[in-house]
């Protein structure tokens, strides 16, 4: 147990280190820098001296490894550095951005887990046409680009039927109803593909378990269909499904960038796109840091649920 | 994976053809496209489909079809770039990891884990900030961060192939590792690689389109791309929603084609038939038999005929089991013993059903019984113990909790009372430290212990009849004796009837009073166990007995019955046993053999019975 915790900690730190180092290297390679972006925003002409001063001011005149070291020391003190443009702490800039992204991601995981697992069980049990429908829907769900679906949903449900707002975000704490309305379309967009994926994985995994001898024996002992399906078969079929949900959570980080853009939701994804355009290194590194944390937590949750679901892992 | 195989899968074939046509028309766009993709005709903007513009025109009056064809070039180039990187890296690293093993394997596996854990979109965004608008760089990055999926597949397959004889032989003959991988392993991996690459190509199409849609690569000023065409279609969506159809449609169809092609190749190379599920279903009502059941028996089976689909696997089985009686069903594997036994619980695998006949249990007809009614019988009136004790238990739940669930299902009581009853049952099957066993998971039990638990589970509903289907076959010899002893003891203690399905004469003699011998779906002889042993009245029974190590004289080789049990589709006309029988004559093959009564309370399905009687 302790050994595994240590292993998890080490691999998480390695991942954080690699992602942040990669961020620094790649951004430093990028043509142009933040000093140019800022000056260009202020005046149409600026001198070389102004430019050098700005670089010193921003701290980007330092060699890359020193910039990175500064960033790491700051991190140890709980700071992700300052936004190059506003001078604000990156943690503060991003603080308000986490909520929208997390709402969309977790909302989608929840919807696709509930609907996907439900549909998967049903099609494993009923088989036949429902299984084929799940197959077909999951293929189409995979094929429809989510940005296209988002656009169509906005046009149909927000603009024409005005059932939902076409964009923007309201905090959960401010107004739960408005929050739900704001994340509804993004979540529906991302769930379209995800539900079908989860359903297919659940169906295949359940079909495999249902063909096993112990299920026949459960029938022979007179247990109810509901208990056999939902308690016994699902528990044994759950590990591949949980793995799938973990992968889904990670892939939704990419998905949220797209839907935030279409629905103009001020989340981490939109911030990442903007920061990339303006070479705002601390901000990019900050978003990458948060995304990596999400990945690490997702992996941890998957690992923990393995222990919970499989007595053999738990015992060893 | 052959071309003819692909031909037999219409969806895969259509997908392959579509992709081929797509490649041709996009590469040939300058010649194929009906008009210049940039030619504007503002007077004819946002026109729907027409003879002149098949897919209509966009907001500047440009021909949508031409723009799609030209835009496809970027998609095509991007996908090829990304897929090349993906394939090269995935295959090379996968082969190296799988073939070399050891530290190389561990290193590559770690690298793969790391790449998979990277937030992909961040990497792509950063690459785009380094190389603004550069599709090549983005696609290389996409190939790199996605390659672990292919790597894992190739690694796993290589590890398996490495153990195969022909690869070992190649190694022994002195071929270098590189040559073995290239010549002997790689060709065998073509199928799985194509599957992964086509799925990845589908992803690459979507990623390229998304980035172009966001304006991060190929903005509209640089010419049409599928992604930026969706973007410009969206700008006018309120005025004209038609444009969303061709722009989204081509993406959907292309991705769908790649996905379907991957699925078709997978079906061809890996096979993906879903396993058969034991699933209660609406059964056809069996044809009732005219034979009268024995009302004094606990179970009275008459002319029971079972089929899977169109194939009859058990025919006209008739027997009675009295209250508290132990009845045996003997025969080789594949004779229909288990199917007969399981049909009494309505637990035939998919496609199996009782075609005709009747099985009356305590006054209720089991043949054609509804699933709902079977649930009132299973566990509480008829219990089942099967061959493999381990696979009879749910691996995810503790022994105690499995017992408690079954106990409470049949006899509603508090959880605490059920737990006490569970320990009582475990004591009854002679498990030492029953309370401790109740806390264990199935994988923490030995085979013998697990079978005792399975018996306890079967007893939890106080059944009147226990079906023991080869209960000792999977166990060690000493454990076999103990389990048989336990069954004998439980039978006399609880007054429960037992049907023992077995091919072991020793077990039969140990437990049963009467037995029937089954061969190829038919009952060939029925008598008391004592009579079966001493005076077999069917050549099959005689052959089985002679091949029995408990009975055969020590020292000589075991005489075996030549040949094997024919599958139901190949049953001979007349006597099913006749091809393997040394008494067979032409008469044996002419028609169905009737049961004869060679003595009180016994039956045989043989017309040469006199020759068996005379020594």
In short:
With 316 residues, chain A is mainly α. In chain A, 81% of the residues lie in helices and 0% in strands. In chain A, α5 crosses α8 (176-210) and α5 (90-126) runs antiparallel to α10 (225-262).
3D architecture notes:
The complex is a heterodimer of chains A (316) and B (615). Chain A is mainly α and 316 residues long. Chain A is 81% helix and 0% strand. The termini of chain A are close together. The model of chain A has no long low-confidence stretch (mean pLDDT 84). With 615 residues, chain B is α/β, with parallel strands linked by helices. Chain B is built from 23 helices and 12 strands. Chain B has helices at 3-7, 10-27, 29-32, 64-100, 102-117, 120-130, 135-162, 165-172, 177-185, 190-213, 226-235, 244-269, 337-343, 371-375, 399-410, 415-428, 434-438, 447-459, 477-494, 505-511, 529-534, 539-546, 609-613, and strands at residues 299-308, 311-321, 326-330, 352-361, 364-365, 382-385, 465-469, 497-502, 514-519, 522-528, 596-599, 602-604. Chain B is elongated and about 100 Å long. Chain B starts with a helix and ends with a helix. At the A-B interface, helix 1, helix 6, helix 7, helix 8 and helix 9 of A face helix 5, helix 6, helix 10, helix 12 and helix 15 of B.
The major sheet of chain A is characterized as: none
CATH T-level topology of the domain at 14-27 and 55-269 in chain B: MetI-like fold
Greatest interface (CB-CB under 8 A), with counts per chain: A-B, 79 and 79 residues
Largest sheet of chain B: 8 strands, mixed
Helix proportion of residues of chain A, in percent?
over 70%
CA radius of gyration of chain B is: 35 Å
Terminal residue distance of chain A: 9 Å
Described by its quaternary structure, the protein is heterodimer
Roughly how much helix do the residues of chain B carry, as a percent range? 40-55%
| Number of DSSP-assigned strands of chain B | 12
Q: What class, by secondary structure content of chain A?
A: mainly alpha
Shape of chain B: elongated
Q: Specify the CATH class of the domain at 14-27 and 55-269 in chain B.
A: Mainly Alpha
Overall pLDDT of chain B, averaged?
86
> Helical region count of chain A?
13
> How large is the count of helical segments of chain B?
23
Strand content of chain B: 5-15%
What number is the mean pLDDT of chain A? 84
Weakly predicted, low-confidence segments of chain B = 272-276
Give the neighbour order of strands across the main sheet of chain B. 6-7-8-3-9-10-12-11
């Amino acid at each position: 147990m302790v050994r595994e915790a240590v292993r998890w900690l080490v691999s998480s730190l390695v991942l954080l280190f690699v992602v942040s180092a990669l961020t620094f290297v790649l951004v430093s390679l990028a043509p142009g820098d933040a000093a140019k972006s800022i000056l260009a925003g202020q005046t149409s002409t600026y001198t070389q001296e102004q430019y050098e001063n700005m670089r010193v001011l921003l701290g980007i005149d330092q060699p890359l490894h020193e910039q990175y070291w500064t960033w790491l020391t700051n991190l140890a003190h709980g700071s992700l550095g300052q936004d190059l443009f506003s001078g604000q702490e990156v943690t503060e800039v991003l603080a308000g951005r986490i909520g929208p992204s997390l709402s969309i991601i977790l909302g989608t995981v929840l919807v696709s887990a509930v609907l996907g697992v439900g549909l998967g069980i049903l099609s494993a049990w009923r088989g036949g046409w429902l299984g084929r429908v799940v197959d077909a829907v999951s293929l189409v769900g995979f094929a429809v680009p989510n940005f296209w679906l988002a656009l169509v949903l906005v046009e149909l449900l927000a603009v024409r039927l005005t059932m939902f707002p076409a964009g923007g975000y309201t905090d959960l704490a401010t107004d739960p109803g408005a929050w739900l309305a704001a994340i509804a379309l993004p979540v529906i967009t991302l769930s379209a593909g995800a539900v079908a994926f989860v359903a297919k994985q659940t169906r295949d995994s359940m079909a495999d378990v249902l063909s096993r001898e112990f299920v026949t024996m459960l029938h022979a002992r007179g247990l109810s269909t509901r208990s056999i399906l939902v308690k016994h078969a699902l528990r044994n079929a759950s590990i591949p499904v949980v793995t799938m949900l973990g992968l889904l959570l990670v892939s939704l980080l990419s998905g949220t960038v797209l839907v935030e853009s279409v629905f103009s939701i001020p989340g981490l994804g939109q911030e990442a796109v903007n920061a990339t355009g303006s070479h705002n290194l601390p901000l990019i590194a900050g978003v990458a840091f948060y995304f990596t944390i999400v990945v690490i937590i997702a992996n941890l949750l998957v690992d923990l649920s393995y222990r919970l679901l499989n007595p053999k892992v738990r015992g060893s | 994976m052959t071309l003819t195989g692909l031909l037999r899968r219409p969806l895969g074939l259509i997908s392959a053809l579509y992709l081929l046509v797509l490649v041709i028309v996009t590469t040939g766009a300058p010649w194929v496209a009906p008009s210049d993709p940039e030619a504007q005709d503002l007077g004819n903007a946002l026109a729907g489909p027409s003879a002149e513009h098949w897919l209509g025109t966009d907001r500047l009056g440009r021909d949508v079809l031409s723009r799609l064809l030209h835009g496809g070039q970027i998609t095509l180039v991007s996908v090829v770039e990304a897929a090349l990187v993906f394939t090269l890296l995935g295959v090379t690293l996968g082969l190296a990891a799988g073939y070399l093993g050891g530290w190389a394997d561990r290193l590559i596996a770690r690298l793969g884990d790391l790449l998979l854990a990277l937030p992909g979109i961040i990497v792509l965004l950063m690459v785009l900030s380094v190389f603004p608008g550069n599709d090549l760089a983005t696609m290389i990055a996409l190939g790199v961060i996605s390659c672990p999926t292919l790597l894992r597949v190739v690694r796993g397959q290589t590890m398996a192939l490495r153990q195969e004889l022909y690869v070992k032989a190649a190694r022994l003959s002195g071929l270098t590792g590189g040559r073995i991988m290239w010549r002997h392993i790689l060709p065998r991996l073509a199928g799985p690689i194509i599957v992964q690459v086509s799925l990845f190509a589908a992803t690459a199409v979507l990623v390229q389109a998304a980035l172009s849609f966001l304006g991060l690569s190929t903005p509209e000023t640089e010419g049409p791309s599928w992604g930026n065409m969706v973007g410009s279609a969206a700008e006018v969506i309120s005025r004209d929603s038609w444009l969303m159809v061709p722009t989204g449609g081509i993406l959907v169809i292309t991705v769908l084609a790649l996905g379907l092609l991957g699925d078709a190749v997978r079906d061809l190379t890996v096979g993906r038939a879903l396993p058969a599920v034991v699933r209660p279903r609406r059964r056809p009502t069996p044809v009732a038999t005219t034979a009268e059941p024995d009302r004094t028996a606990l179970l009275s089976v008459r002319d029971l005929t079972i089929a899977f689909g169109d194939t009859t696997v058990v025919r006209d089985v008739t027997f009675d089991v009295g209250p508290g009686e132990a009845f045996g069903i003997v025969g080789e594997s594949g004779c229909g013993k288990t199917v007969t036994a399981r049909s009494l619980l309505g637990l035939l695998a998919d496609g199996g059903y009782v075609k005709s006949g009747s099985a009356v249990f305590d006054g209720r007809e089991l043949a054609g019984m509804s699933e709902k009614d079977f649930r009132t019988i299973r566990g509480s009136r008829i219990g089942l113990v099967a061959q493999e004790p381990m696979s009879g238990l749910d691996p995810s739940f503790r022994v105690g909790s499995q017992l408690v669930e079954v106990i409470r299902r049949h006899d509603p009581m508090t959880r605490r009372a059920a737990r006490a009853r569970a320990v009582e049952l475990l004591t009854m099957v002679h498990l030492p430290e029953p309370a401790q066993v109740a806390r264990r998971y199935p994988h923490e039990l030995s085979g013998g212990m697990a079978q005792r638990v399975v018996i306890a589970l079967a007893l939890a509903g106080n059944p009147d009849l226990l079906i023991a289907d080869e209960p000792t076959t999977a166990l060690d010899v000493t454990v076999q004796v103990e389990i048989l002893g336990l069954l004998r003891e439980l039978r006399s203690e609880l007054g429960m009837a037992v049907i023992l399905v077995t091919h072991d004469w020793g077990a039969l003699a140990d437990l049963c009073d009467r037995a029937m011998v089954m061969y190829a779906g038919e009952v060939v002889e029925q008598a008391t166990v004592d009579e079966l042993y001493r005076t077999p009245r069917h050549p099959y029974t005689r052959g089985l007995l002679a091949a029995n190590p408990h009975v055969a004289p020590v020292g000589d080789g075991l005489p075996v019955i030549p040949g094997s049990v024919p599958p139901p589709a190949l049953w001979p006309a007349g006597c099913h046993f006749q091809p393997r029988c040394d008494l067979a004559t032409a008469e044996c093959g002419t028609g169905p053999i009737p049961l004869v009564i060679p003595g009180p309370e016994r039956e045989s399905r043989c017309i040469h019975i006199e020759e068996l009687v005379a020594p």
